[in-house]
Write a structure and sequence with these properties.
alpha+beta, Alpha-Beta Plaits, MutS, DNA mismatch repair protein, domain I, Dna Ligase, domain 1, 4 domains, 4-stranded antiparallel beta sheet, 21 strands
Length: 469
């Protein structure tokens, strides 16, 4: 087997296609990449970010965008996928597997020349190399770009002569330099026990994969699954039931596609065309599903009691799918059913009322209880948390605005009954920037098992803020 590796040394820069010059990318503390103009000013990767502005006053500095870097690597993998069905993405590049002969009509040199042209068209500047193992190909792409090693060559001796600076272990090159070790062969010649104690088992496993003594764990990259179906109608639709009938077949095809690829989806785009007009409707789910038919009730809710904006003659269904992830089953069967019913209810409410009309509470960092939460459009119930309020013994049921209490004999009274303070005071002094408050909070007992959350102001005024369940 042969492995072709492509390494993108300027990956952090490629994440900013419209970058000015001079330009550099930082991880928050140090530079990780800089363009040619910034390098001419003396900047280099590893330099503290605070010193870069002194050497280059016109420097444009940006934080590293790992999401955009992932998109660049996906584009690189899609280019390699044209030449090989087995492609893997690595942190700074990608690898592709070939046979020794590659194909009966093409050798590895022609494949590399073709890939160089495709990478140039995509604006991805990378170095590549070929070797019998993926780790060896990656190291050669860094230290000896363009080299081609096959099983018929003495490739292990060639790899042993590579410098230790190309090892993918931060800090290892400096430690090996202190030991006067310059090449990988000298490092691999060290006693194994001492090498493991000094550098860990990770480097030992890496050397095993490098020379082919240990199997390589390979995760194949797969192109994104995009479902697209266009339904051209023989007659124009003008009502909701006819539209639902036209959608049943493409959504059944969506279910087949999800099952075939073991994928899931949580978003469907519906483009309606007619009378020279096009309207796009987007349907989102709270959780990914494997069945396309679940979108039919959402379409029904969206168009219920409403007329279509125009006579629809063309329907385009599009859906981006993702590989399914293994999950865990609920301990109690009815618990999973209730969670599913809750998700279906939220989806139907969003389809009926609009996504902006279904809100969730999100914790907000503010000491004032009435401003400690925010209502935001429902995205995912996973980010809703009231752990901080529960730990501080604060109630979830708040009175807005706070209710003034009667003060008699120096103490607060509620509904004619005196209140006994059980816990407190808890002093809150905040909001000096917009509405300053100074309060002392107490947990009070009102009799008959009722507990209230009250506070006192500097003017000895008492207010009811909330109820404990």
């Amino acid at each position: 087997m042969l492995w072709l590796a492509v390494v993108v040394p300027d990956l952090p820069l490629l994440a900013f296609p419209d970058r000015p010059s001079p330009f550099a990318v930082t991880d928050g503390r140090r530079l990780v990449a800089c363009d040619d103009k910034a390098g001419a000013c003396g900047l280099h990767p590893g330099m503290p970010a605070t010193e870069s502005g002194v050497l280059c006053p016109d420097l444009c500095l940006r934080d590293r965008d790992e999401v955009a870097e992932g998109r660049v690597l996906s584009r690189l993998a899609s280019i390699l996928y044209r030449a090989s069905p087995r492609v893997g993405v690595r942190p700074h590049g990608a690898v592709a597997q070939f046979t020794d002969q590659v194909t009966p009509f093409r050798d590895i040199r022609r494949v590399m020349d073709d890939l160089r042209g495709r990478l140039r068209e995509a604006g991805i500047g990378g170095t590549m190399a070929c070797a019998p193992t993926a780790e060896a190909a990656l190291l050669c792409a860094v230290a000896e770009p363009g080299c081609i090693l096959t099983g018929r060559d003495k490739w292990r001796e060639f790899v042993a002569g590579l410098p230790v600076s190309c090892l993918p272990f931060p800090g290892s090159a400096a430690q090996l330099d202190e030991l006067r070790i310059r090449t990988l062969g000298e490092c691999m010649a060290l006693p194994r026990a001492g090498r493991m104690r000094r550098f860990g088992a990770g480097m030992e496993a890496f050397f095993g994969r490098l020379v082919g003594e240990r199997p390589e764990v390979f995760v194949s990259w797969q192109p994104p699954i995009v479902f697209s179906r266009r339904v051209r109608l023989s007659y124009a639709l003008d009502n909701e039931e006819a539209l639902l009938f036209a959608l049943r077949r493409p959504l059944a095809h969506l279910t087949d596609t999800l099952r075939r690829h073991d994928a899931m989806t949580d978003r469907l785009t519906l483009a309606l065309t007619g009378d020279g007009q096009t309207q796009t409707q987007v349907f989102c789910l709270t959780a990914p599903v494997r069945r396309g038919e679940v979108f039919l009730p959402l379409v029904r809710e969206r168009f219920r009691d409403r007329t279509l904006p125009f006579a629809v003659s063309d329907v385009h269904v599009r859906c981006d799918c993702a590989q399914a992830r293994e999950g865990t089953l609920a301990l109690w069967a009815e618990g999973g059913a209730r969670a599913e019913e809750w998700g279906v209810l939220v989806d139907r409410l969003q389809a009926r009322l609009g996504s902006s009309s279904v809100c969730a509470l999100r914790w907000h960092a503010d000491h004032r209880p009435e401003r400690a939460t925010r209502e935001l459009p429902w995205a995912s119930p996973g980010h809703v948390s009231f752990g901080g309020m529960a730990e501080a013994n604060h109630p979830l049921w708040l009175v807005d605005p706070p209710e003034a209490l009667v003060v008699a004999h120096g103490g607060p009274r509620w509904q004619g009954r005196p209140l006994a303070c059980l816990e407190g005071p808890e002093r809150i002094e905040s909001g000096w920037w917009d509405e300053a408050v100074v309060r002392e909070y107490f947990v009070a007992h009102a009799g008959q098992g009722q507990r209230l959350w009250i506070f006192r102001t500097p003017g000895n005024e008492w207010f009811l803020q909330g109820y404990f369940a």
